[in-house]
Design a protein that fits this description.
This protein is an all-alpha fold and 113 residues long. 78% of the residues lie in helices and 0% in strands.
Length: 113
């Protein structure tokens, strides 16, 4: 498993954008939630301590990274499954090559008719 979930999220999003042909600029983003959260965290008054602001930011960053990691787990499981299938076919390719040649011969025979 990877310890870089943000990299996986970026890779998967890039792959999805490539497949669908959608540009990142076409997505409707609403940054008001992010701005409101940031202003609430950084709301500084006389009673607010700089250490508390720092701890809030660290806790928020940790929660965001945990969320990204949880989101990336299904992608990692699917990729591990695909890699396992590829390794299986590489390890046991002799029988499958013969089977593929037999099917190819049948297809070539059917196309000649």
């Amino acid at each position: 498993m990877s310890f870089l979930p943000l990299g996986f999220i970026i890779t998967v999003l890039g792959f999805c954008f490539t497949i669908t042909g959608v540009s990142e600029q076409e997505l409707p983003f609403d940054f008001t939630i992010i701005v409101n959260t940031y202003t609430n965290l950084m709301n500084y008054n006389e009673e607010t301590n700089t250490l508390m602001l720092f701890l809030k930011m660290v806790a928020s960053g940790g929660l965001i990274m945990a969320l990204f990691y949880i989101i990336s787990l299904p992608v990692q499981v699917v990729s591990y499954f695909i890699i396992s299938i590829i390794n299986y076919f590489r390890k046991n390719n002799a029988g499958y090559v013969g089977l593929f040649k037999r099917y190819l011969d049948i297809i070539v025979y059917l196309l000649r008719i």
